[in-house]
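Example 9 (inverse folding). The structure is encoded as follows.
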């Protein structure tokens, strides 16, 4: 109830109000003294996940054409990792590794399969994680944190065992399905189990235009989904400023299709674009593809700025771990007769991989090495960098250590908490493993500075083992397999122990 200057309160009302305030104060005091896990003592987590953002597409990682001042500021205030890797080279399995802490040899989801392949009752969404799969969100929820996710899910349709509400999130708002997320002007988004219509005339995510003038306005709808999702994230932070929270923000930029707002595109030079994109490499045409791609990354950067401003307004920035990373590398090549990559992306123009080999869909470094920045005032030293090898499987144990939570059995990663808070190199690094049945069937294993790669495992004649010394050949240009037979044998033995059967995403590794 609000009181203006013209309202008065009775004496009894004042006594009652004083009594309530006193009780509240005593309760807070009791929590502060006798309860070590009182809400005020818990550190919030904001985990921001970009979609298909390349290792070299941020200013703090060497990008010179696309301004990313907010992410660069985050790096100046925290720790920047130069050797961090995603869970997989494509969306859904990478997110599964992140959420469950299990590498691709143990992960339930190892590819981007639609749910209706095995479960025809679902019209959208990807193959769901099972009821038994435990997510980091469930652990935080069980510890009393409010949990929220705004963005793209991809781990099971609404109503399935992988429904985000069944996997630890009190509030989910955004795209449940990756395929729907190809459009930035979709018909609907989801708020938990409710389908929210946002565009009566949705824009498709894919269309070719072989001839005629390509017009930006032809692909602009009514409601721009990213604007709604970042607004929901700001609201979540404000609403939960007085209680601990875990907030997962899997934004969709810069995944194609490219149709950012015209005002964002117009910020970039006209002379960049000497060729229109007509949709020949899938997704939507665009008259200014280079400017549009830069606009998407610039908009993503603005969301990071808005998240940080929300934390500052709420007065909780000092008690919040903020992590920024990407689910895999930048988009892969399209048609051989087009210099564009899938969706009209031009990674050579932006030097998106900064010298790494490969792109999204590849277990070479360009497909899996991603930016990663972590900020926590007073615990993570500002303006620092770390070259310890790390990957998504490490986040589950890391966040458990941050929150003082017991780690469940069966996690595959190392905790990065000591490295983050001391700056020291990660000790006793477990092997990092990628088992990827798509794009021809690929595996990769990194042990120390050495990495083994094998491709074409689903072909009649699989490719041979390749070996790279990443400390001296980060571009993976010099295959050292001829002098590393012992290392290859070690990798094969490791895979034999570490890769479990997966009938939904099978991959035979041991064939000669």
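The amino acid assigned to each position is listed next.
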């Amino acid at each position: 109830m609000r009181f203006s200057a013209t309202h008065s309160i009775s004496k009894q009302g004042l006594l009652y109000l004083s009594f309530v305030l006193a009780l509240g104060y005593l309760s807070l005091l009791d929590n502060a003294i006798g309860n070590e896990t009182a809400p005020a003592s818990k550190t919030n987590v904001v985990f921001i996940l970009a979609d298909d953002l390349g290792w070299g597409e941020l200013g703090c990682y060497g990008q010179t054409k696309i301004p990313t001042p907010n992410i660069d500021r985050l790096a100046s205030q925290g720790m920047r990792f130069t050797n961090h890797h995603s869970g997989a080279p494509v969306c859904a399995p990478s997110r599964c590794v992140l959420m469950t802490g299990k590498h691709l040899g143990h992960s339930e989801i190892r590819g981007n399969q639609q749910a209706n392949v095995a479960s025809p009752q679902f019209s959208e969404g990807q193959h769901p994680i099972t009821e038994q799969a435990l997510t980091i969100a469930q652990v935080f929820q069980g510890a009393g944190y409010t949990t929220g996710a705004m963005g793209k899910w991809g781990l099971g349709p609404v109503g399935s065992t992988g429904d985000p509400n069944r996997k630890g999130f009190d509030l989910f708002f955004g795209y449940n399905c990756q395929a729907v997320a190809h459009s930035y002007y979709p018909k609907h988004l989801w708020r938990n189990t409710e389908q929210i219509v946002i565009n009566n005339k949705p824009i498709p995510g894919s269309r070719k235009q072989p001839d005629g003038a390509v017009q930006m306005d032809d692909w602009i709808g009514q409601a721009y989904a990213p604007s709604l999702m970042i607004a929901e994230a700001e609201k979540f932070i404000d609403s939960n400023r007085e209680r601990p929270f875990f907030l997962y923000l899997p934004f969709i930029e810069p995944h194609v299709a490219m149709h950012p707002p015209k005002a964002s595109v117009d910020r970039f030079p006209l002379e960049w674009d000497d060729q229109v994109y007509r949709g020949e490499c899938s997704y939507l045409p665009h008259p200014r593809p280079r400017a549009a791609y830069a606009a998407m990354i610039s908009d993503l950067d603005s969301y990071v700025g808005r998240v940080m401003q929300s934390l500052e307004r709420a007065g909780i920035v000092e008690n919040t771990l903020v992590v920024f990373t990407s689910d895999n590398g930048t988009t892969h090549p399209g048609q051989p007769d087009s210099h564009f990559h899938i969706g009209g992306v031009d990674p050579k123009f932006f030097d998106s991989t900064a010298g790494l080999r490969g792109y999204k869909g590849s277990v070479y470094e360009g497909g899996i090495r991603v930016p990663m920045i972590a900020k926590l005032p007073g615990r993570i030293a500002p303006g620092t960098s770390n070259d310890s090898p790390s990957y998504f499987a490490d986040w589950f144990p890391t966040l458990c250590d941050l929150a003082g939570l017991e780690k469940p059995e069966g996690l595959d990663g190392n905790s990065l908490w000591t490295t983050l808070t001391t700056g020291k190199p990660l000790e006793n690094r477990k092997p990092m493993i990628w088992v990827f049945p798509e794009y021809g069937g690929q595996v990769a294993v990194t042990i120390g500075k050495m990495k083994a790669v094998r491709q074409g495992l689903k072909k009649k004649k699989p490719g041979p083992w390749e070996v790279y010394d990443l400390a001296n050949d980060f571009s993976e240009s010099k295959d050292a397999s001829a002098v590393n037979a012992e290392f290859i044998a070690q990798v094969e033995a490791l895979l034999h122990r570490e890769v479990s059967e997966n009938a939904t995403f099978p991959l035979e590794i041991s064939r000669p």
